[in-house]
């Protein structure tokens, strides 16, 4: 016990110990007090004599040890002693039997040295090197408090939460999980010397007053299903569960399942790896693919085509969406809507309640088994397309999800012969027409168009469809003079359609009749998909008591208003069988009524039997689809209320249930899809009055326990072998896993501690192995011995945690100094002179101050400009020119404005703090302009924040490095840090901003999408890299080691994901569909598909093969000093061909056949050609020479805004 501090005798005041013998106080209390004082003084004097006479001061108890020490005695082995006095003084003493400090009451005098003011001082002095606090049992203590604490459970070998009463207990009691882990655990398997990041913050300051508050998002994009979470912290906007708490709910991607919620429960569909490459899911579209000379409808796919690889819908409808109409729903009867109660990086927990109990749904990314925790509530399961349950025949409705298939485009050969009176329309489509009755036409003499422009359904008298469905010929009689015409191909396109004008008025197509007519060609066009509206049947009821007084009432809701009944057709039949031969009936006033400004159409129909079928067709400016979309196979069925169906007689008792489902849209019953449901006790399933499958404990009552669901693949009907292979993992699950980050030197680590829970349901898993799912990029980071094959295509991982390791790029945004010196030291100075000339050109061209003060939403465009100037300034400094001086002045002007340090920006560009979700907000529109979720690339709804702010942080990182006095001013620092907190906050402890707003740690990449609805997607992986690289650089400049480390780690994971999911290489070629294996790059990655197109980037010429350069280019902007981490020789070889075709279109296969009337063989503009040249230069020395020559011939104005000649040239020369 050597080395302890010297003691000091302490005299306690009367207030400290509450007064001596307060119960006996009387009028003589002053006398009593005097006696007490004397007694204390005597006792103290005795203690001093004992102490100085007998104790070695090197082994003294601490200063706040109170009692009298014994000579040459270890005070920690003495029993805590009250002493003879009667004061009431709570003290702490070490109990040598229990081997822990306990509380006792000290009388105020004498006693011994085992007497401490605090538990901490007692523990510090008397700690037993042989005692492990982590082995101590959990102790709540005798008090009645409710303090969340953590203790280490040696049997579980992990830290667990418990409720501490507030007093006594033992030392196995920690404030946080990380405190517990640091003492008793292994910190999720991370190196103990690492810098931990997940509980660190850059700041916790409320910046509302600094920037000013905004609540506009309450009107634009309010949160849903979030309960009281916003009171505790900022809400997540890019989290996987954000898909279910924003205004446009879309599926959550969990791997290997998707999930979507409604008030009836949560619906699951499979989400397997084979969907990424399945050719049945590859949908090419040819709107931008040129055609052959004189036959523009004969497309030349070999030069390139847009494409999507859909991965949402089941295999029976491979090009469909998933909106909750397939798969299996799990819920409870009469439940409330779901509410998110907790979330973190890898999980989100939702709760459903009903009058009896609740259903907790702990969603975890990568969890193989979907776990559901029921409390006093019976599970209700909806298995769509059911054919059997545990081998017993059963059935359930089998709706089809809406298709996402491209609708194609069309060319029309038109002629009108006045001699024969024939109008000939030959329609050539790029996608096959399913049935001739899908074609509708309107044609009349121009003077009669207003009164006779209704659509006619094609029949054999007028229309002939080719065997391949690609051509339909219409021979229309009674043509004369000048004819107006229009064509609607249901669910595909309208002709004409240009500039978003209606077909019917005032812009029909026109052709003049003549005795010797020439054939002219018109083009349908097709507006971008996001401009199309939707039509939805919101009401479809049969009213009345019997068929004699029955009436069917249908309400069709439109997202774009109809202005005339001419736009709307319908089919209403009451036959027992629906066929494709029913003609569309134009709406008439006695049946149809347009209300609500054209947003709703009410149909009033009279049925002739108890079951009716209905479909509607809306054609016009935006909406050209039917409702329902698959009206041929599944029209809306309307059943009168007095007709009831006999429920299925099913009663099965078991702990496991296998649901065999047929494929929607595919009646081939050879194979069925399997979903397994596992329970922790025997359950009996029956079919309730609503036709749903209700599960009840075998002994009755309501269920409290666990249920798991898992997709078990597709196999022959009755073959359960794949499903049975998953039995052994049933019962064990991940619950609120802990994600940790740490950095040590140039190595970063990510730990997923899955927090394993549950039990082995079937006695097949004695070690309670936990099965999780690894994505392709995880495989090389995990121990191969723990990886297994699964029915989902993804590898499975057996283990309680993952530890992933990353090599970290440098935080600096400066060009590599060694590369700069090589250029400076060239004997001929050719490269140096080229770069100096490029610096001069760029400096003369830059317009930063003009760009950052321009009206209109400029956070992105001004951001690109400030990024370009910053990169140029770093190059200027590296090569010793003085251009940076003026550039720095421009940077300061714009940074002061945009950070709000000085005023003067237009209102649309002023930063505010959004109090609705929590984060930085910019109105992005004038005060009189309406704000939409997509305004300013969606920035107002938290889309693209990492893109926009990435450029600004890049500039601030540079400026703060060279002008630290500006950056470190208190208010400036808070403003600067707010941008970092918005896109790169590492911890939930900062309650004003969500953690890593756009980053998906499990997938590795980021998502640009915010809270405006729709599937998460991103177009530019390189701009995400730029953001996190800038974050690390900003941390270095601001002397914030956490920000620097976290930025580097985020950059490293973004780079890995970019290399694996955005750029085609030999190690990942197998996960891309065939067209992308040829093209070498993605255009856009969505959670429900892989795309080869760009959403917001126009190309010039906007066609293939030139468009290849634009798709490659958006994965390169901006060129950075670390771009070489993915812009390397291997990838250069894989995009070299498509870049070459873009620059020289005739060189593309089939390029010499391009029709020059409709398309062109002009090269892609230098704006995008220059990007292609930068990556092509990495292929070989000849390609590098070509890229140099190309770039030297340009001016800065020839480049895409935000790019610079010096930047491109430096990267071409030295990859920095």
Automatic annotation (TrEMBL):
Gene3D superfamilies: Pancreatic trypsin inhibitor Kunitz domain (4.10.410.10). Pfam families: Glyco_hydro81C, Kunitz_BPTI. The chain crosses the membrane at residues 33-54. Residues 1-11 have a biased composition (Basic and acidic residues). The keyword Membrane applies. InterPro entries: Endo-beta-glucanase (IPR005200), GH81_C (IPR040720), Kunitz_BPTI (IPR002223), Kunitz_BPTI_sf (IPR036880), Prtase_inh_Kunz-CS (IPR020901). GO terms for biological process: cell wall organization; polysaccharide catabolic process. It is an enzyme of class 3 (hydrolase). GO terms for molecular function: endo-1,3(4)-beta-glucanase activity; glucan endo-1,3-beta-D-glucosidase activity; serine-type endopeptidase inhibitor activity. Its EC number is 3.2.1.39. It catalyses: Hydrolysis of (1->3)-beta-D-glucosidic linkages in (1->3)-beta-D-glucans. Residues 76-126, 134-184 form the BPTI/Kunitz inhibitor domain. Residues 1-26 are annotated as: Disordered. Keywords: Carbohydrate metabolism, Cell wall biogenesis/degradation, Disulfide bond, Glycosidase, Hydrolase, Membrane, Polysaccharide degradation, Protease inhibitor, Serine protease inhibitor, Transmembrane, Transmembrane helix. SUPFAM superfamilies: BPTI-like (SSF57362). Belongs to the glycosyl hydrolase 81 family. PANTHER family: ENDO-1,3(4)-BETA-GLUCANASE 1, GLUCAN ENDO-1,3-BETA-D-GLUCOSIDASE 2. This is glucan endo-1,3-beta-D-glucosidase. It comes from Holothuria leucospilota (Black long sea cucumber).
């Amino acid at each position: 016990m050597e080395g302890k501090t010297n003691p000091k005798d302490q005299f306690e005041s009367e207030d400290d110990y509450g007064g001596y013998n307060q119960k006996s106080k009387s009028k003589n209390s002053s006398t009593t007090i005097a006696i007490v004082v004397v007694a204390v003084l005597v006792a103290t004097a005795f203690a001093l004599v004992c102490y100085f006479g007998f104790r070695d001061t090197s082994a003294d108890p601490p200063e706040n040890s109170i009692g009298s020490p014994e000579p040459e005695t270890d005070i920690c082995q003495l029993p805590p002693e009250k002493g003879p006095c009667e004061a009431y003084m709570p003290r702490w003493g070490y109990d040598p039997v229990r081997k822990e400090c306990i509380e006792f009451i000290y009388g105020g005098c004498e006693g011994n040295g085992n007497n401490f003011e605090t538990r901490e001082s007692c523990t510090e002095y008397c700690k037993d090197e042989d005692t492990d606090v982590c082995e101590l049992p959990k102790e709540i203590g005798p008090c009645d408090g409710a303090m969340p604490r953590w203790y280490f459970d040696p049997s579980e070998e992990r830290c667990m939460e418990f409720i501490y009463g507030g007093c006594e207990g033992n030392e196995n009691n920690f404030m946080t999980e990380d405190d517990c882990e640091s003492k008793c655990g292994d910190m999720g398997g991370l190196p103990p010397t690492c810098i931990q990041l997940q509980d660190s913050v850059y700041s916790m300051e409320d910046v509302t007053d600094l920037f000013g508050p905004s609540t506009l998002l309450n009107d634009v994009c309010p949160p849903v299903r979030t309960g009281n979470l916003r009171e505790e912290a900022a809400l997540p906007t890019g989290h996987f569960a954000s898909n279910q708490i924003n205004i446009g709910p879309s599926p959550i991607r969990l791997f290997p399942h998707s999930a979507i919620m409604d008030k009836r429960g949560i619906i699951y569909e499979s989400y397997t790896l084979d969907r990424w490459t399945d050719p049945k899911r590859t949908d090419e579209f040819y709107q931008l693919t040129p055609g052959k000379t004189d036959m523009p409808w004969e497309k030349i796919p070999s030069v390139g085509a847009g494409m999507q690889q859909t991965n949402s819908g089941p295999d029976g409808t491979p090009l469909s969406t998933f909106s909750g109409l397939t798969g299996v729903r799990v819920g409870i009867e009469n439940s409330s809507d779901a509410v998110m109660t907790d979330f973190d990086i890898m999980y989100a927990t939702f709760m459903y309640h009903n009058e009896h109990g609740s259903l907790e749904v702990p969603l975890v990314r990568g969890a193989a088994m979907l776990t559901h925790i029921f409390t006093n509530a019976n599970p209700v399961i909806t298995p769509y397309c059911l054919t059997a349950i545990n081998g017993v025949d059963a059935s359930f409705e089998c709706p089809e999800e809406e298709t996402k298939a491209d609708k194609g485009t069309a060319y029309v050969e038109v002629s009108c012969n006045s001699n024969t009176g024939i109008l000939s329309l030959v329609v050539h489509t790029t996608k096959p027409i399913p049935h001739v009755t899908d074609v509708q036409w309107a044609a009349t003499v121009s003077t009669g168009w207003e009164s006779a422009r209704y659509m006619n359904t094609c029949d054999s008298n007028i229309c002939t469809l080719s065997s391949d469905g690609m051509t339909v010929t219409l021979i229309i009689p009674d043509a004369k003079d000048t004819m107006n015409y229009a064509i609607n191909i249901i669910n595909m396109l309208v002709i004409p359609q240009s500039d978003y004008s209606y077909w019917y008025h005032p812009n029909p197509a026109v052709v003049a009749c003549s005795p010797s007519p020439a054939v002219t060609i018109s083009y349908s066009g097709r507006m971008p998909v996001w401009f199309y509206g939707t039509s939805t049947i919101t009401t479809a009821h049969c009213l009345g008591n019997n068929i004699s007084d029955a009436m069917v009432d249908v309400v069709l809701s439109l997202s774009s208003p109809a202005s005339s009944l001419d736009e709307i057709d319908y089919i209403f039949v009451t036959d027992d069988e629906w066929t494709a031969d029913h003609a569309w009936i134009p709406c008439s006033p006695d049946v149809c009524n347009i209300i609500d400004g054209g947003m709703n159409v009410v149909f009033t129909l009279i049925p002739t039997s108890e079951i009716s079928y209905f479909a509607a067709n809306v054609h016009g400016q935006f909406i050209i689809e039917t409702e329902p979309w698959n009206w041929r196979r599944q029209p809306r069925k309307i059943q009168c209320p007095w007709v009831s169906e006999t429920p299925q007689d099913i009663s099965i008792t078991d702990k496991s249930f296998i649901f065999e489902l047929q494929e929607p849209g595919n009646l081939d019953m050879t194979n069925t899809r399997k979903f397994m449901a596992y329970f922790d006790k025997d359950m009996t399933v029956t079919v309730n009055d609503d036709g749903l499958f209700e599960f009840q404990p075998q002994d009755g009552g309501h269920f409290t326990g666990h249920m798991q669901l898992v997709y078990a693949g597709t196999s022959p009907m009755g073959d359960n072998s794949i499903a049975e292979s998953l039995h052994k993992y049933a019962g064990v699950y991940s619950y609120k896993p802990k994600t940790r980050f740490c950095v040590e030197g140039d190595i970063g680590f990510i730990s997923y501690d899955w927090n394993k829970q549950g039990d082995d349901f079937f006695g097949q898993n004695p070690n309670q192995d936990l099965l999780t799912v690894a994505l392709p990029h995880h495989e090389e980071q995990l121990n191969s011995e723990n990886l297994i094959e699964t029915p989902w295509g993804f590898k499975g991982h057996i283990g309680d945690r993952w530890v992933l390791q990353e090599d970290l790029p440098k935080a600096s945004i400066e060009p590599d100094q060694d590369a700069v010196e090589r250029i400076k030291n060239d004997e001929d100075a050719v490269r140096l002179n080229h770069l100096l000339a490029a610096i001069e050109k760029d400096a003369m061209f830059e317009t930063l101050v003009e760009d950052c003060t321009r009206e209109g939403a400029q956070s992105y465009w001004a951001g690109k400009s400030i990024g370009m100037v910053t990169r140029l300034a770093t190059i200027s400094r590296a090569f010793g020119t003085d251009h940076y001086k003026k550039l720095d002045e421009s940077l300061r002007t714009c940074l002061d404005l945009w950070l709000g340090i000085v005023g003067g920006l237009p209102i649309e560009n002023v930063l505010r703090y959004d109090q609705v979700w929590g984060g930085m907000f910019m109105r992005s529109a004038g005060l009189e302009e309406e704000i939409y979720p997509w305004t300013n690339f969606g920035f107002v709804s938290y889309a693209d924040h990492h893109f926009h702010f990435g450029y600004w942080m890049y500039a601030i990182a540079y400026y703060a490095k060279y002008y630290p006095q500006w950056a470190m001013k208190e208010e400036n620092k808070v403003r600067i840090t707010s941008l970092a907190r918005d896109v790169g906050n590492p911890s939930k402890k900062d309650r004003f901003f969500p953690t890593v707003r756009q980053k998906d740690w499990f997938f590795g990449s980021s998502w640009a999408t915010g809270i405006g609805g729709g599937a998460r997607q991103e177009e530019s992986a390189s701009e995400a890299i730029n953001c996190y690289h800038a974050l690390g650089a900003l941390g270095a400049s601001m002397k914030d080691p956490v920000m620097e480390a976290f930025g580097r780690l985020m950059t490293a994971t973004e780079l890995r994901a970019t290399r694996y999911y955005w750029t085609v290489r030999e190690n990942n070629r197998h996960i891309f569909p065939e067209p992308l294996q040829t093209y070498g790059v993605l255009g856009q990655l969505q959670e429900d598909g892989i795309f080869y197109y760009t959403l917001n980037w126009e190309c010039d010429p906007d066609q293939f093969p030139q468009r290849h350069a634009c798709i490659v280019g958006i994965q390169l902007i901006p060129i950075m000093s670390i771009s070489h981490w993915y812009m390397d020789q291997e990838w250069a070889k894989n995009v070299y061909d498509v870049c070459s075709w873009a620059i020289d279109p005739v060189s593309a296969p089939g390029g010499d056949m391009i029709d020059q009337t409709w398309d062109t063989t002009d090269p892609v503009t230098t704006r995008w050609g220059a990007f292609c040249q930068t990556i092509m230069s990495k292929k070989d020395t000849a390609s590098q020479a070509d890229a140099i020559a190309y770039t030297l011939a340009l001016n800065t104005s020839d480049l895409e805004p935000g790019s610079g000649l010096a930047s491109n040239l430096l990267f071409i020369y030295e990859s920095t």
